[in-house]
Amino acid sequence: MTRTKPRVVLLGKQGAGKGTQAARLAEHYGIAHLSTGELFRERAAAGTAFGLEAKRYMDAGELVPDDIVVGVVEECLAPGGPLGDGFVLDGFPRTLYQARELDRVITDSPLDVAVNIDVPREIVLDRLAGRRVCEQCQRVYHVNMPPAHDWTCDTCGGRVVQRDDDTEEAIDRRLELYETETVPIIDYYRERGVLVVVDGVGEGEEVFERIVKAIDARIGCP
Ligand code: AP5
Ligand code: MG
């Protein structure tokens, strides 16, 4: 069976724009968007034991343990599961263990491309400090580009708020873990020949066009 939809992993520091770009890529290619962070936040908001456990790690800027994360993602990626043929993964994998587990789960049809959205630290710090998110549909805003009316989401009317882990301490810890746990994945994907590095500085639209160009080149789209 041939596959026409891309299988994409987005890598990049916290605040690099993974969530912003993943939502647009999902719409552009008609593929599913899986953000492990969003999935955990939804479950925490629903008050499930699993969600509340995950929230403890997230609010401290720590990673949720690998076995928990892999279990959840495996359910989504299983044949016939919600992710289907093509997908964009945002925030997974973020340890070498998770990258190897992903390869194990999708052996039938491997990844097309891992896009590393490259943004310097001082820029992500500024973006994270200004980020606001709809607590209902998770649409991402920035204080410089707020919703049209009084912090009410333009898409669903939900309340637009600051994330609980966008505190100075949690941001420092998340960026530290990015360097120690997630950066090794970049080489992992480079060695497998699927890594593309895209400059993530510039207008969102410009960055989106760079990513689409990189994905299309990988999947042989003209
Ligand atoms: P997650 O929700 O994935 O958060 P994160 O990794 O900290 O990444 P961010 O969401 O902060 O950044 P982003 O790259 O998505 O940036 P965004 O598009 O929002 O994970 C949260 C937590 O869950 C983790 O800390 C961990 O505890 C746990 N977790 C999740 N996955 C896990 C896993 N696999 N293993 C273990 N634990 C896991 O953009 C940021 C801001 O910048 C926004 O305001 C946006 O409007 C703005 N912006 C975006 N692009 C541009 C641009 N081009 N120019 C100007 N501004 C821009
Ligand atoms: Mg995100």
Descriptive keywords:
alpha/beta; Rossmann fold; five-stranded parallel sheet; three-stranded antiparallel sheet; 8 helices; 47% helix; binds BIS(adenosine)-5'-pentaphosphate; binds magnesium ion
Structural account:
The protein is of the alpha/beta class and 222 residues long. The protein has one domain: P-loop containing nucleotide triphosphate hydrolases (Rossmann fold). It contains 8 helices and 8 strands; from the N terminus they run βαβαααβαβαβββαβα. The two termini are 22 Å apart. The mean pLDDT is 92. It is globular. A hairpin with a 5-residue loop joins β5 (131-134) and β6 (140-142). α2 crosses α3. It has helices spanning 18-29, 36-45, 49-59, 66-77, 96-105, 121-130, 168-191, 204-219; strands spanning 7-11, 32-35, 87-90, 113-118, 131-134, 140-142, 160-161, 195-199. A 5-stranded parallel β-sheet has the order 2-3-1-4-8, sandwiched between helices. It binds BIS(adenosine)-5'-pentaphosphate and magnesium ion. Magnesium ion binds next to α1.
Q: What small molecules are bound in this structure?
A: BIS(adenosine)-5'-pentaphosphate, magnesium ion
Number of domains: 1
Counted beta strands: 8
- CATH domain class name: Alpha Beta
What is the CATH superfamily? P-loop containing nucleotide triphosphate hydrolases
Largest sheet: 5 strands, parallel
Question: What's the short version?
Answer:
The protein has 222 residues and is an alpha/beta fold. It has helices at residues 18-29, 36-45, 49-59, 66-77, 96-105, 121-130, 168-191, 204-219, and strands spanning 7-11, 32-35, 87-90, 113-118, 131-134, 140-142, 160-161, 195-199. Strands 2-3-1-4-8 form a five-stranded parallel sheet, sandwiched between helices. The protein has a three-stranded antiparallel sheet with strand order 6-5-7.
